[in-house]
Amino acid sequence: MSNAHSNKATGPIPDNAATKTADYFDERLGIYGAAKKNLRKVFPDHWSFMLGEVALYSFIIILLTGVWLTLFFKPSMTEVVYDGSYVPLQGIHMSEAYASTLDISFDIRGGLAIRQIHHWAALIFVSSLFVHMFRIFFTGAFRKPREMNWLFGFLLLVLAMVNGFTGYSLPDDLLSGTGLRIAEGVVLAIPLVGTYLQFFLFGGEFPGTDIVPRLFTIHVLLVPAIMVGLLTVHLILVFYHKHTQFPGAGRTEKNVVGLPLLPVYTAKAGGFFFIVFGITAALGGLVQINPIWSYGPYHPGQITAGSQPDWYIGFLEGSLRIMPNWETNLWGHTISWNVLIPSLVVPGVMFTFIAAYPWLEAWVTGDKREHHLLDRPRNVPVRTGLGAAWIAMYLVLWIGGGNDIIATHFHLSINSITWTMRVLFFVAPVLAFVVARRIAMALQRRDKDKVLHGRETGIIKKLPHGEFIEVHEPLDAERLHFLTSHEQPTPAALPPAVDENGVARKLKPGEKLRVRLSRWYFDEKVEKPTAEEYKEITSGHGHH
Amino acid sequence: MSSNHDMSEEKLPAAHAPAGTLDPFADPGLPEHEPRRTDIDEKAAKRAERQVSLLFVISMLATVGFIASYVTIDKYRIVDLFFFGKIGALNLALGVTLGIALFCIGAGAVHWARTLMTDEEIVQERHELKSSPEDREAGIREFQQGAADSGIGRRPLIRRTMIGAMALVPLSGVVLLRDLGPLPGNKLRHTFWGRKGPEGRTVIINENTGKPLKPDHIIKGSLTMAKPEGLNQETEDHQPNEHYLAEMGKAVILLVRLEPDEIKSKKQLEWSYQGIVAYSKICTHVGCPIGLYEQQTHHLLCPCHQSTFDLADDGAVVFGPAARSLPQLKITVNESTGFLEAVGDFAEPVGPSFWERG
């Protein structure tokens, strides 16, 4: 295993109680084999590798606090008259779900803290999943052999958003009911089966009395069970594939360089769990989130201005807001494009693109090798541009979801904000692509410049004949290797139109498109400095 | 460790090339380990040890503080905290002490790892995931043998009936979902207002006061939210009415007073009473209640997605994602009581569109 490691533990194996206990378990479970393989497993280090950890830890926090909340929450829409300690709502008719959430918030000690930790952890969970996913995307960590794990992670992200929505719909307050009402409208817009789906989902007309207990089962059992399963496979695969690493001196596709699981990552990652939990707990104590008591119980005829969903549903909200009001009536049937497109088609296309990206890119590049060294985002400008474009599109929708808040805070016309977002939805991704790609290329040029001319030291030297020059310091061997070790694929080309026998060649379907995309990916590039160039400049001419 | 060992295969030829033509960009191998202060200075190591322990001690104290807060602080006590404002004292104390207790364990562990545990990097080999050709062949052979032993290829009758049985069996699960809810029927087409037939009169009740409305209760420039008489949170025998919210979700209306000459549509004028018009409060986009009224323009704005309706023009959409006008409810006044009444039901389904709406 750690064949290159020098300070190995030696001496006789101690014959004490600990060893005996371990022996007991080994004879029944075979633990020494697993220990030999995994205890000193190496993990490479980089700050961005902690993003997935944040996701994992916030998920654990959600599970722990969530179990506690189920001990007190009553998932029932049975109507009760509130008689708890929150004076403004005393004597008001409300569901048991809302009343028990008020009890958790006011009458059960620590209840509000745990509720707020649960909610904060959920917000952090989805955020960290997104950022983690983009880290994987921009560094190309999704490439072979990790495509399947990308897909598992993608499913975790989608399920996290679903479960977040079902979660904040449970308290049955005015805000959560408004979210459900919108969801009802979305379900109704589904052609052919929408009306039936809505009646089956809600157990009749909206809101009915079934939706909260049903969402509760989905929220605490169905989705979390699937997520725990996916997460387990996700982590097993991270172990099995061995973590990717950034290129650098001594780091190759065939090795993994880093620190051992025991003790360094046990301490660092285990410690980091407590740090994340500690910060989330402090947030739960200090920063109010989702104050359901100020919204009041749900009533389909009431609403507060400025209703906003949790942040990760905001892009759907914005999508619904900026969509033009198209509806078709054909042969007695209604198709609500104004709901269908923004709430199902647009997110469907955006997220399918994410899920499918590893296979799309592999098809374009035709690359069938394993990749364990990460790409620096600048070295793959088109991929980086595509990621930026996706983020731009998401952000436009997300900002669109707050168009009323923007309008009231900045005294702008809501109509012009909405129109701006409609235009930006198409323009911003293109701009983001072009800008990100240009920046990536420019950074490559700077790398090249550094390799050939060294680092600018900031030291100005006066030469005997009066000329001033800035001293450039040549890079060390490690840095030179780091800046030049990336690959620069040549774009695919179509084979000659006729084969060696003069017979017209038949192309595979899609081959032309593939070649065109491959050119788009790789045609324009900043040529890496060659050894000859480097020697030419470093020998003789000195630095300039 | 030797640099040769860490050299990538691709770069090996360069390393063996004669001196002078060496690739300047070749992998120089893992750099030498540089010791940290705590690796060589026992005093620094001791200091780090004390810092780690201090963090663990703070954590212990915070846990004691958590328990003490839980027991001693009154759960209804409010404190005024700089920057955070008025805040529940117990919630604050529990969150902060728990946060400190957890954070300090984490900070201690990480500080320990960074200062006292090894930071010497280890190199481990990777192996391609692909199986060796022998394993590949053996695996395929095992499968072939298993398939041959089962006879699944030679006995198509078994194969096809098995596929058929497996394909059908999930249907039971789908059928079992049928009782999740009733069939829609024409429930989405009717509201509580239509309960007495097409010309039946229903008294309009002010949602806030619970009392019937007279025309002079409707003041210019304000919105009055109203519901049909007989639709209450409790049934007549004082049981909770479980259909109340579902019925309100369709029946809730808004009453607004306009100048009769401001009303642009003839139908709207006919369905109004002295300039008082009644519209469904449920947005035709995805069903949010509409609550923001701009009296200068007679525009009604939905706070969810900003669909804007012109109340002086048949409730027509003037902006936003809603595709259909707000349904109007025909009203009149009962000559004997002087109360506003609705005549029959809405002429069209209220709320979001649906496939069968037409």
From TrEMBL, chain A:
<feature type="transmembrane region" description="Helical">
    <location>
        <begin position="419"/>
        <end position="440"/>
    </location>
</feature>
<keyword id="KW-1133">Transmembrane helix</keyword>
<keyword id="KW-0408">Iron</keyword>
<dbReference type="InterPro" id="IPR016174">
    <property type="entry name" value="Di-haem_cyt_TM"/>
</dbReference>
<feature type="transmembrane region" description="Helical">
    <location>
        <begin position="216"/>
        <end position="240"/>
    </location>
</feature>
<feature type="transmembrane region" description="Helical">
    <location>
        <begin position="380"/>
        <end position="399"/>
    </location>
</feature>
<keyword id="KW-0349">Heme</keyword>
<dbReference type="GO" id="GO:0046872">
    <property type="term" value="F:metal ion binding"/>
</dbReference>
<dbReference type="InterPro" id="IPR027387">
    <property type="entry name" value="Cytb/b6-like_sf"/>
</dbReference>
<dbReference type="GO" id="GO:0005886">
    <property type="term" value="C:plasma membrane"/>
</dbReference>
<dbReference type="InterPro" id="IPR005797">
    <property type="entry name" value="Cyt_b/b6_N"/>
</dbReference>
<keyword id="KW-0472">Membrane</keyword>
<feature type="transmembrane region" description="Helical">
    <location>
        <begin position="150"/>
        <end position="170"/>
    </location>
</feature>
<protein>
    <recommendedName>
        <fullName>Cytochrome bc1 complex cytochrome b subunit</fullName>
        <ecNumber>7.1.1.8</ecNumber>
    </recommendedName>
</protein>
<feature type="transmembrane region" description="Helical">
    <location>
        <begin position="54"/>
        <end position="73"/>
    </location>
</feature>
<feature type="domain" description="Cytochrome b/b6 N-terminal region profile">
    <location>
        <begin position="21"/>
        <end position="247"/>
    </location>
</feature>
<dbReference type="GO" id="GO:0016491">
    <property type="term" value="F:oxidoreductase activity"/>
</dbReference>
<feature type="transmembrane region" description="Helical">
    <location>
        <begin position="182"/>
        <end position="204"/>
    </location>
</feature>
<keyword id="KW-0249">Electron transport</keyword>
<dbReference type="GO" id="GO:0008121">
    <property type="term" value="F:quinol-cytochrome-c reductase activity"/>
</dbReference>
<keyword id="KW-0813">Transport</keyword>
<feature type="transmembrane region" description="Helical">
    <location>
        <begin position="339"/>
        <end position="360"/>
    </location>
</feature>
<dbReference type="Pfam" id="PF13631">
    <property type="entry name" value="Cytochrom_B_N_2"/>
</dbReference>
<keyword id="KW-0812">Transmembrane</keyword>
<keyword id="KW-1278">Translocase</keyword>
<keyword id="KW-0479">Metal-binding</keyword>
<feature type="transmembrane region" description="Helical">
    <location>
        <begin position="119"/>
        <end position="138"/>
    </location>
</feature>
<keyword id="KW-0679">Respiratory chain</keyword>
<dbReference type="GO" id="GO:0022904">
    <property type="term" value="P:respiratory electron transport chain"/>
</dbReference>
<keyword id="KW-1003">Cell membrane</keyword>
<feature type="transmembrane region" description="Helical">
    <location>
        <begin position="261"/>
        <end position="287"/>
    </location>
</feature>
